[in-house]
Design brief:
Number of strands: 11
Strand content: 15-25%
CATH superfamily: Luciferase-like domain
CATH topology: TIM Barrel
Distance between the termini: 9 Å
Number of domains: 1
CATH architecture: Alpha-Beta Barrel
Largest sheet: 8 strands, parallel, barrel
Helix content: 40-55%
C-alpha cells in the first residue's frame, strides 16, 4: 500500500507552526513527513522561509514515531556537503533513526544568496554526485581529506554518528538526474507522476528501491476559496522545472506565472472538498510506481482544518482500496 505523507512547507508557515502541524499530522495518522529547505519563498504571497534544520530538530522532539525527510536539501552551494553530512547524522540521532536525507541539485532561488555564478544543470549534477560521495565517506567515521573537482575537505570527521545511517534520496526530473539517482540513491524523489522517471531510475540501478512523490492540494469546503488560494500561492507550481531551477528571486516567479490561469492550476492541483478528486490526483503517482506520496496543503492558515479532514476522510478513502 502506498504510504501517505505530510509536507511541512517552510515557504508558507513559520517555524513554530510547522512543528505544531507535524505533531498534528503524526496524531492524524500520516505515514511520514517531509520538509522543504528554502532560503526564500517561491512567491512573496507565501511569506515565510525559516531555517529548515532548526525546524527539523524541534520536530524530532515534538513527535514520537513519524519518519522525517528533507524534500530536498541542496549540498552544492549554500551548504558544503561536509556540513550536510554532520547535520543529517545529528538529525538521525535526535529522531532515533527516523530521518531520511533527501538531496537535489537545487534552485537558483535559494543558492544565489552566497554569491558567485549559478552553475548550469550538468555541472550541478557533477557537484551533487561528488557531494554524495563526500557525505557517505564522512559517515564511515573516518577522518576525510580530499581534493575534488568541486569540493575540498580538510581533516573532517563526524564525531556523533548514529548506529543506523540515514538513507539518501535524490530528486530526479530527467535522464541525467535519474542516472545519478540510480547509481547513488537509496530512494528516488520526484514531483511529477511520470512513469518514465521510474523506468530511467530502474535502468540506472534503482530497481526495487522506494520512490517518493509529492502533490500539492488545496482543500477547502468552499471550492472557490480553494482555487483562489492556489492561484495566489501556488501558481508557480505549473512551471517547468527547467525554468524554476534558474529564476533567482520571488519576483521572478511572480512575473513568470502572471499568465497562469485558474484552469492551469486546477488541472495539476485538486481543489475543494471532493475527496475523490484528491484521491484521483494521488492515484496518478501510485500508477506511476511511487511507493510514497507526500501531500502539500496550500495555505498556512488551513493546516489544522486540512489535517483533521485528511484524518477523517482522505486517508481512510486512500486506504480503503
Amino acid at each position: 500500500m502506498t504510504r501517505i505523507g505530510y509536507t511541512m512547507m517552510c515557504e508558507q508557515a513559520g517555524p513554530k507552526q510547522l512543528v505544531r502541524d507535524v505533531a498534528l499530522a503524526e496524531e492524524a495518522g500520516f505515514d511520514f513527513a517531509v520538509i522543504s529547505d528554502h532560503y526564500s519563498p517561491w512567491l512573496e504571497s507565501q511569506g515565510h522561509s525559516p531555517y529548515t534544520w532548526s525546524v527539523l530538530g524541534a520536530a524530532a522532539q515534538a513527535t514520537e514515531h513519524i519518519p522525517l525527510m528533507t524534500y530536498v536539501t541542496c549540498p552544492i552551494r549554500r551548504y558544503h556537503p561536509a556540513v550536510v553530512a554532520q547535520k543529517a547524522a545529528t538529525m538521525q540521532l535526535l529522531s532515533d533513526g527516523r530521518f531520511t536525507l533527501g538531496l537535489g541539485a537545487g534552485e537558483n532561488l535559494n543558492e544565489h544568496i552566497i554569491g558567485g555564478r549559478w552553475p548550469i544543470a550538468g555541472v550541478r549534477h557533477e557537484m551533487l554526485e561528488e557531494a554524495v560521495g563526500i557525505i557517505r565517506a564522512l559517515w564511515s567515521g573516518d577522518t576525510v581529506t580530499l581534493r575534488g573537482k568541486h569540493f575540498d575537505v580538510e581533516a573532517a570527521r563526524i564525531w556523533d554518528l548514529p548506529d543506523s545511517l540515514p538513507e539518501i534520496g535524490i530528486a530526479v526530473s530527467g535522464p541525467e538526474s535519474c542516472r545519478l539517482a540510480g547509481r547513488h540513491a537509496d530512494i528516488m524523489i520526484a514531483v511529477e507522476p511520470r512513469p518514465k522517471l521510474g523506468e530511467m531510475f530502474d535502468h540506472a540501478g534503482g530497481a526495487g528501491k522506494p520512490r517518493v512523490g509529492q502533490i500539492a492540494l488545496s482543500y477547502d469546503p468552499d471550492e472557490g476559496i480553494a482555487v483562489k488560494r492556489a492561484m495566489e500561492q501556488f501558481r508557480w507550481f505549473t512551471g517547468s522545472w527547467r525554468v524554476n531551477a534558474e529564476l533567482p528571486v520571488p519576483a521572478s516567479f511572480d512575473a513568470a506565472s502572471r499568465m497562469v490561469r485558474e484552469e492551469d492550476v486546477t488541472a495539476q492541483m485538486p481543489c475543494g472538498a471532493d475527496v475523490q478528486r484528491h484521491v484521483a490526483g494521488i492515484r496518478k503517482f501510485e500508477s506511476a510506481g511511487f511507493t510514497h506520496v507526500a501531500l502539500v496543503q496550500v495555505g498556512s492558515e488551513t493546516q489544522e482544518q486540512f489535517i483533521s479532514w485528511a484524518a477523517t476522510e482522505l486517508l481512510p478513502a486512500l486506504r480503503a482500496a
